[in-house]
Amino acid sequence: MMNSPDLAAKPTAHDATTASSTIHPAAPLYPDQRQAWLVVAGMAVSLCILFGSTLNSFGVFIPPITQTFLSTNEESANIASAFMLTMTLAMPLAGWLLDRIGPRAVMSSGAVLMGLGYFLASMSNDISSITLAMAVSGAGVGASTYIPSIALVMRWVDLKHQGLALGLMLSGGSIGAMIFPMLLTHITELYNWRVAMQFIATLALLVCVPILLWLARLPQQPLPDSNQTSNLQNLSGKSIGQALRMPRYWLWVGVQILATLSTLGIIVNVIPYLISVGYSPQEAATMFAFKSVAGLLGSFTFGVLSSRWDIKPLLMVGMAIGGFGIFALLLGNDPSFGFGAIVAFTVAWGATFNLVNQLSPMLMEETVGQRNFGTLLGIGNLIAGVGAAFSPKLIGYLLDTSGNYSTALMLCAACMIAALIPLAFLPKRIPVSSTEQAQ
Question: Which residue has the higher pLDDT, 411 or 2?
């Protein structure tokens, strides 16, 4: 493990002596920040494709798949649920492997698995086969995107700019959400949904895999919170057992569960909802893409603010704005509000829906440290994601039983507002001591 090309090289005794004599203890030593921002850019491109063409585009595929196989809304929604479930299950394993063998093998293998899953889905002849293939793809996305990308970026970028870096990285997913719903809708209308899925698989294999093989590396030098003569195993921070016994960790998990349940329910169903209130598939995909423009602006704005303001109140404000946006979406079929309500949703929810992914890892990292950060982030998202994976299925069930989206959208809004409760009870950030080592 010490010889893995993905891991930082262990300094020699001479290097350690030289470093201690030339670097003042008060002057933090960070990796090359030019290379760090190149890593951020590469992860953004990867997320643009891997998230933009999957999670952000399920709404494009559900109507034609439902029509092809004459399935119920609940059966079609199981495709997204299976994807989300396996993606979530893969996250803690990816985080654990990243903490031990490095990100390159983990992330590139995940991208290959994602492409394979979409190729299999495109050749499926029944709804069950598609669901199974998308479960394979979900595992690949879980291993190649959110958890390992965040852990990688936070190892490279200095503390002051981490919020901005995570925002820019996650904005790749927002750009993908602008591009892929409209692009895949066009491909589906021009050819069919099978060709659209094959297009996604090709991009994953020919673009994402080479990027991850190139840039998914840990820095050559340790971050300032680590011992200058130690390797990655000696980074400061809590042990896994210590972190799991901390009440604030479970409050953080509670925020993740409720916010993810709400967000996934909206992402998967907003395009079908807009079609149901009278918009064409292309118009619905275009409106959904515009929410990603708001997402880009929101990620950048809140990223800049995170270097000046405390993370907790900033996240609370953003989540409250997002809840308001979902309530506005409920008025989309009301003639008195109509398009104005859709615009309000696009701006309010679009600018804030990704803030939990952008800012909450910083809340956790400040407390548990970097030693087991990838593993603990994966465990938390596993617990949150297992619950949230049933959001599309639940909304499909509510749609089948009620015949409209009102109840489902109210549930999504209530979950977002309810997430403010555990967030409010999170205590003030208590940074891990720079001298603390896991017991």
Answer: 411
